[in-house]
Amino acid sequence: MITFASMLEIIVRTLPLIVCVLWAIILMTDWHKQRIVAKLKLSAFMAVSATLYFGHGVFFNGLYELMPLADTLYCTANLAVFPVFYLYIKDVTEVQKHPLRQLLYLLPAIVIGCVVGALYVMMSTEETTAFIATYLYGSSVKGLHGVALASAYVHVAARVIFALQIPPILFFGYKRINAYDREVERNFADVDDKKMYMAKSLLAFFVVASIVSFIANLIGRERFVGSAWAVIVPSLTFSTLLFLLGYAGHRLNFSVEKVMMEVENSPLEGQKIAEENLDFIDNLRKKLELLVEEERIYLQPDLRVSDVARQLGTNREYVYQAINVRMGISFSDYINSKRVEYAKKLLRENPDMSSDELFARSGFNSSASFYRNFKQLTGMSPRQFVNSLATV
Whole-angstrom Cα distance, residue 2 to residue 20? Predict the structure, then answer.
């Protein structure tokens, strides 16, 4: 008889699979509507993760008749899941795509998957039963011979490859996200809908998740059979991470291609800085500060560095030199600091001004961006700032 507790355990165990399938469908729909390749890659990541958790489900429910197929899919997905996630990051942050080169990231998964599947085909029914019972559930090779023993060694190799691929993927993934975010900050004042905030945080969480996965691979899945909590805790953890990752990818409708379109469409972009002319850059910085203070261009929502360059009659690289190099601040931080100062001025004049009116009049394109920048620059929320005025 199925009790409420056992039903709840089944639901929690299958939760990662459910989350992955739902996001795979949603992201595929996003790709169909928007034709953003990164959405397709993230949908593929969710599909691969769903395959991985399907293999988990078959294993932990002891469905022996499905084990050859499920284990083959599990070994393939286990080695493909992190490379596919990295390919998603590459599609968001890299302009030039090399489809054939991208397949190389999946080569270990494809090779191991094919070998595992072929070995299952070569094993007799008795050998398959012995392999599943002895190695998959017993974590032992004692008594295994021939093809079954070879299959055990292939599984060990898969665990080693899984461990080796994690550090470079995490390192280069984080490096790419940082480079992309810096380029966004260089070109746009409003970056909240363009930067990969959540992806960067989730990548950090994936470091922890990767360590857990690596340890689980070393211990072996068979150690978790029969222990409800040993499965439920990681199940809830990964379900949460996967849900947040899917949500972040669903919200992100920007990529490096749009950044490069901004660069290519910038005025006088053909000009190159042959050598640093500090006097010229300093004069440009003074003109820029004058333009910002007198004309309050920071009040324009979605202000771009090319808009400033156009008004100054120069190109974006010179503006970059004036702001990022001479002022030591990004274009985004510079403009938003001016917006926050203006918001503080509005609050001093009218403490009862509504939040919607306040962020709109200050040049921000969203309340989230306004609150984040205001808190970051003042250490207070707008309401706390108003209260502090009353105590002065």
Answer: 26
